[in-house]
Amino acid sequence: xxxxxxxxxxxxxxxxxxxxxxxxxxxxxxxxxxxxxxxxxxxxxxxxxxxxxxxxxxxxxxxxxxxxxxxxxxxxxxxxxxxxxxxxxxxxxxxxxxxxxxxxxxxxxxxxxxxxxxxxxxxxxxxxxxxxxxxxxxxxxxxxxxxxxxxxxxxxxxxxxxxxxxxxxxxxxxxxxxxxxxxxxxxxxxxxxxxxxxxxxxxxxxxxxxxxxxxxxxxxxxxxxxxxxxxxxxxxxxxxxxxxxxxxxxxxxxxxxxxxxxxxxxxxxxxxxxxxxxxxxxxxx
Length: 285
Hints:
18 strands; disordered C terminus; Lipocalin; disordered N terminus; two-stranded antiparallel sheet
């Protein structure tokens, strides 16, 4: 009976411990679920760096843009987007440089923010029925020329401005933070390829000027009288030609073999109509 009582008491204590563990887990789960989301207001600026170049020859509307966040984004002293988070977008429109205008204009629609733990935040695309949702888009001006092989280079810095408020999961952000790796824009290697471009031609110069000399005159002989020698009057010797050297030509200048990488001049937000945002959907990955 004594051993039976001890066994019953142990079972009761064990049962109580299990209920306590379950109750504690339920409280922790409820607390985690109740963690309020992190709100980012419209107008929040997010600094980005391009991680895949955009080729000048093949770029077209609908192509994907890949970037990462350069600086962490906070809201009310709470970290919302860690540095190194991935951002995906697509090209909406491209105006390429010409021989007269060394500038490219690119319109970009930002579509996703992907965190280091896989948490993906799809940005509004402007298709909400309420009409209040606008996509986050930017207009990029790039110092570029027809000799460049890129429109946007590795390491190019852009700015994304949120067009609408965003709500982020605080739990997901906490999980992504230790996995995030900040990026240094200055360590990106340019993807511009070196290729020859036309140089300037030199001048041909001028030829030598030749002034002809005189042929000279022969000696004149006057016969002498009987018993007298001839009288010889020496002629004048010939004179050589006079040569005045011409002016040498100038050499041409070689072409530029490595065009300077394109440089972003400005990055400003602009409004995109829902129809524009749907015109070129994000390419499947």
